Amino acid sequence: MSWVKVCESSEVKDNSLQKFNIKGKDTLVGKRNGELFACDNSCPHRGASLHRGYFKDDNIVCYLHEYEFDIKSGKLVNMASWRKSNTWKEQNPAWRKSGDLILYDVEEKDGNIYVKIEDGNKQES
Ligand code: FES
Question: What is the pLDDT of residues 13-23, one digit of tens each?
Answer without folding.
Answer: 999 999 999 99
